[in-house]
Amino acid sequence: MITLKSAREIQSMEESGAILAGIHEELRGYIKPGLTTKDIDQFVQTRIEAAGAICEQIGFEGYEFATCTSVNDEICHGFPSDKFVLKDGDLIKVDTVVNYNGAMSDSCWSYVVGNATPQVKHLMEVTEKALYLGIEQAKAGNRIGDIGHAIQTYVESEGFSVVREFIGHGIGPTMHESPSVPHYGDAGKGLRLKEGMTITIEPMVNTGTWKSKMDDNGWTARTKDGGLSCQFEHTIAITKDGAKVLTQQK
């Protein structure tokens, strides 16, 4: 079911999003070679709880962690581990959901550990720009396909591919709501966007094929060809003035 949010509800989600954005800002200076992905998970959990919020991912369909920490060829849902030690040049995606007084926010951000290779730098730049090109299309009267088309055409023009199996979604009052928000598709097709909708836009962009394979844990997806994968995600609201980013960083 799609729920249209009031101005008060959107404000509450923005307060939740500010907590989440602030954590991502802190991660910029925290992530470095020698840390484990479990260190990062514990850092995020501590910050969320210190803000009086709830780590919404913990317990979701049996998931045990506050974050998904996906490194290099892992597309999404990577398990934090005290055995996974980050090294210079790694590309890590940190994804988490904050529940603050019942208001949800969801944001994944990508970080390079230490020094970025030219390939990683280009991949990150393209993926982040693709996110904002999608957000530009997220306005009342447009359709879901307008978002995906803007992302797909740009990403593919840069020689990369867009993951198909994992997509954006509605959010609030629970973590995953309708509508589905693919990062590929045809302009002018799909559900029409309405004022009050709150959704995530979260393109996952690969250096090689868009196809994925699953690890034995049943959660972690990685690129089928071993190529790198990058992701950037915001929670947004559709307003009369266009898209309002609820997880905007400084």
UniProtKB/TrEMBL annotation:
Residues holding a divalent metal cation 1: D95, D106, E233
Documented EC number(s): 3.4.11.18
Tagged with keyword Transcription regulation: no
Annotated keywords: Aminopeptidase, Hydrolase, Metal-binding, Protease
The protein's required cofactors: Co(2+); Zn(2+); Mn(2+); Fe(2+)
GO biological process terms, semicolon-separated: proteolysis
Residues reported to bind substrate: H77, H176
Annotated a divalent metal cation 2 binding sites: D106, H169, E202, E233
Catalytic activity from the UniProt record: Release of N-terminal amino acids, preferentially methionine, from peptides and arylamides
Domain Peptidase M24: 12-240
InterPro entries tied to this protein: Creatinase/aminopeptidase-like (IPR036005), Pept_M24 (IPR000994), Pept_M24_MAP (IPR001714), Pept_M24A_MAP1 (IPR002467)
Subunit and partners: Monomer.
Function: Removes the N-terminal methionine from nascent proteins. The N-terminal methionine is often cleaved when the second residue in the primary sequence is small and uncharged (Met-Ala-, Cys, Gly, Pro, Ser, Thr, or Val). Requires deformylation of the N(alpha)-formylated initiator methionine before it can be hydrolyzed.
Family recorded in the similarity comment: Belongs to the peptidase M24A family. Methionine aminopeptidase type 1 subfamily.
HAMAP family: MetAP_1
Name the record gives this protein: Methionine aminopeptidase
UniProt source species: Trichococcus palustris
